[in-house]
């Protein structure tokens, strides 16, 4: 720790300690680094907990009704399954700390379970078996240390394109529908933005991985635009009721 190292330096040479007390600029530059690292470490696991909180209710809903056809988009689940798989492969091959990407591991496992449940509940047991027989060998190959670096980087770049296009599609639909069907609660908007900003911070502090940082920067920008858009349409819908209230009070 920085405090203990400073104490050892003082014991070794008391003049150095006097120099630090007289000239604060002479203190080591990384004095706050342990505290920043600890904050980023705890923040990373908080984001993992938020991710579990946001995804597990969907699984419980499917298990309860033994169907998800009416409220789950197969294309959306498939997209999330592919992108989370890409993320896990990239993180493992780059030896990134688990606190910087752990929610993607949980989400990948969750989407695998959901896809199998969807097949089972709709009488497609053979497809579920074939899916698992193909998926696990593919993951073993992708997680193999000898996989070329260009393949691993391509998976992450693919996430840029897929999730960026998905978020832009959200923006367009939110514009067309004036925000009626997107993020009806403030909690979902808040969790989405907090998680993204937190992940950008943990990427900067704990990994320094350029692709990861650019990815979360892109997500933060798109999330901010979407949030502003939703707030704008929410206030727009509330304006007529506020006008009616003001007219009644004035009358």
TrEMBL record:
**TM ranges:** 38-59, 71-92, 104-120, 150-168
Q: Does the keyword Transmembrane helix apply?
A: yes
This protein's source sits in the domain of life called Eukaryota
Q: Which UniProt keywords apply?
A: Membrane, Repeat, Transmembrane, Transmembrane helix, Transport
Name-wise, this protein is Mannose-p-dolichol utilization defect 1 protein
Q: Which organism is it from?
A: Plakobranchus ocellatus
């Amino acid at each position: 720790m920085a405090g203990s190292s400073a104490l050892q330096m003082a014991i070794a040479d008391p003049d150095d300690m006097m120099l630090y007390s007289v000239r604060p600029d002479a203190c080591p530059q990384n004095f706050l680094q342990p505290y920043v690292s600890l904050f980023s470490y705890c923040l990373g696991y908080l984001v993992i907990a938020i991710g579990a909180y946001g995804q597990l209710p969907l699984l419980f809903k499917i298990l309860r009704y033994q169907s998800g056809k009416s409220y789950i988009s197969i294309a959306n689940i498939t997209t999330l399954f592919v992108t989370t798989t890409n993320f896990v492969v990239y993180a493992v091959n780059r030896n990134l700390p688990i606190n910087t990407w752990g929610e993607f591991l949980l989400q990948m496992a969750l989407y695998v379970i959901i896809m199998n449940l969807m097949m089972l509940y709709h009488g497609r047991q053979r497809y579920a078996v074939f899916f698992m027989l193909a998926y696990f060998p593919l993951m073993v190959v992708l997680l193999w240390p000898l996989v070329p670096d260009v393949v691993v980087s391509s998976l992450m770049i693919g996430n840029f394109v897929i999730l960026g296009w998905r978020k832009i599609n959200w923006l367009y639909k939110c514009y067309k529908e004036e925000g009626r069907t997107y993020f009806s609660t403030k909690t979902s908007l808040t969790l989405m933005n907090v998680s993204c900003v937190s992940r950008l911070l943990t990427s900067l502090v704990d990994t320094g991985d350029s692709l990861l940082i650019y990815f979360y920067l892109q997500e933060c920008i798109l999330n901010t635009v979407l949030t502003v858009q939703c707030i704008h349409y929410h206030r727009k819908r509330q304006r007529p009721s506020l006008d009616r209230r003001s007219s009644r009070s004035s009358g």
